[in-house]
Design goal:
It is a single chain. This protein is mostly helical. It has two domains: 181 residues, no CATH class; 278 residues, no CATH class. It is built from 18 helices and no strands. Helix 11 packs across helix 12 and helix 12 crosses helix 13. The longest helix is centred in the first third of the chain and has 37 residues. It is globular, with a radius of gyration of 23 Å. The two termini are 16 Å apart.
Length: 482
């Protein structure tokens, strides 16, 4: 069930009405959310509900056992059991064929032949998100950062809460879980603010992401037919497609959760206005980047290790693993590794530039934002490409003399009903709010505008969504595949 579908609108209206009709019965509210979340997820494939239920039950009981056990060895064994269950489920469904094929390719280098038993495995939607969410719960209990809950219903609702179930934000139990133990009554202010945030998310998804997708998909899927100038446009459009798509999902999830009295963490904060790669990851998919910081980078020693080589390896490992989290393909691993290289390059550049004061600080800031955007966009080539060879061919064409060819004729031949001016105007519209709310908690805030201007902004978003939505039908959110 997609947020931008008629089915979801009907589903949400029904759930919302019953939800607040039962405001004086917390247990019923949570049970309603749990059942609704299972319906929402089962809309894709009800068979995979068993994985969520297994993950929920195992981590609930393992979390309780860790919390009630004082023996360090026993606590560690229980934590390992939790990790094995979650990573085992994730590893089998997402990485089995990748590891099997990679091992076969490796041994073939030494003259050995193998006929691997590849499986036709369907990747469950959102599996990477809810497994990481439940793992952080047992890890935090093991570390003594939180106590386990004795309420199974609240825990299962926390794991499966439908707004953020399939594409995040990846919530921490310490933030989200206690909210299911508190009374939630209708709040008109929160409802209106949540609706505005969801509207902004729909605009980013339907107007920006889906319109950019038409050109980006055609260009990437037929990259051998286009010159470098068109390929540059393709990857820039993909950069805005994936941002509008993923941040749009997060905005809708945060918005509808807020309408229901639940606060979700911020997941994006104007990432394309970042001044370096480290700043980019403080602004892009914040729930995932902080997850890897707390559960991978810091346990490896983080930046506190004495050796600069060890510190550099910690950074490389963290970025590379985060790339691998996105998918079972070497292109994702290279994408993550590239970000670690960009991190080192920009760190060295920043240190050297501190002593150079030739340009005004504002110009330096703009230059840094531009360089960071170019680096991030270049890395998106590997993220979007079907294979390593596809990515390299794409890059070679960009660096060839064909980059100076006029791309207009090629774009016209694509025959899209999507008008380029719609994309340009919507990106200008996006940029105004991104710059205005660069460091705000919520990416869509117009409270400082006068009432007529605020109304005009809301109406313009609705009009843009209705009249300038992509005409190729409802398009899935990109991060559903992860």
């Amino acid at each position: 069930m997609l947020f931008n579908s008629f089915e979801f609108v009907v589903f949400f209206v029904i759930v919302f009405f019953i939800y607040y009709k039962s405001y004086n019965n917390l247990r019923f509210q949570n049970a309603l959310l749990l059942v609704s979340s299972y319906v929402f997820y089962g809309w894709w494939d009800w068979r995979f509900l068993s994985l969520i239920i297994i993950s929920s039950f195992s981590d609930y009981f393992i979390g309780r056992a860790i919390d009630l056990n004082n023996d360090k060895k026993q606590r560690k064994r229980l934590l390992v059991l939790s990790l094995l269950v979650n990573l085992g489920i994730l590893g089998f469904f997402k990485y089995y064929n990748f590891f099997t094929e990679s091992f076969t390719d490796f041994i073939s280098l030494f003259g050995f032949e193998s006929n691997p038993a590849l499986l036709n495995i369907v990747l469950p939607v959102g599996i990477s998100f809810y497994t990481f969410q439940t793992m952080s719960y047992t890890i935090d209990i093991y570390r003594g950062k939180m106590k386990s809950t004795d309420n199974l219903l609240e825990f299962m609702t926390f794991v499966s809460f439908f707004p953020q179930l399939v594409a995040g934000p990846i919530e921490r139990a310490s933030h989200l879980l206690p909210q299911f133990g508190k009374k939630r009554e209708f709040d008109l202010f929160e409802f209106k603010e949540g609706a505005k945030q969801a509207l902004w998310g729909l605009f980013k998804k339907i107007v920006i992401a889906d319109n950019c997708a038409f050109y980006a998909n055609q260009i990437f899927e037929n990259s051998e037919s286009y010159p470098g100038s068109v390929l540059v446009i393709g990857v820039v459009l993909f950069a805005f497609q994936i941002y509008g798509d993923f941040s749009g999902y997060s905005d809708i999830a945060i918005g509808i959760s807020r309408m229901m009295g639940i606060d979700l963490m911020q997941n994006f904060k104007s990432p394309y206005l970042a001044e370096n790669i480290q700043d980019f990851w403080r602004r892009w998919h914040i729930s995932l980047s902080t997850w890897f910081r707390d559960y991978v980078y810091i346990p490896l020693g983080g930046s506190k290790v004495d050796s600069s080589i060890r510190r550099s390896m910690n950074i490389i490992i963290t970025f590379t693993v985060s790339g691998f989290w996105h998918g079972a393909n070497w292109t994702f691993i290279i994408w993550g590794f590239l970000h670690s290289l960009f991190y080192f390059i920009q760190t060295g550049y920043s240190k050297n530039m501190k002593s150079v004061k030739i340009l005004p600080s504002k110009l330096v800031q703009i230059f840094n934002v531009l360089i960071t955007f170019i680096a991030v966009t270049f890395a998106w080539i590997f993220f979007r490409a079907e294979s390593f060879n596809h990515a390299m061919d794409y890059i070679f064409e960009i660096t060839s003399s064909s980059i100076i060819e006029n791309p207009v004729g090629y774009l016209k031949l694509m025959g899209s009903s999507v008008k380029p001016y719609v994309i340009i105007l919507s990106l200008i519209y996006l940029s105004i709010f991104e710059i205005n709310n660069r460091d705000a908690k919520y990416s869509f805030q117009v409270g400082h505008f006068k009432a007529p201007m605020r109304i005009l902004v809301y109406l313009s978003l609705i009009i843009l969504i209705i009249f300038f939505r992509a005409t190729d039908g409802t398009i899935d959110f990109i991060y559903f595949q992860f």
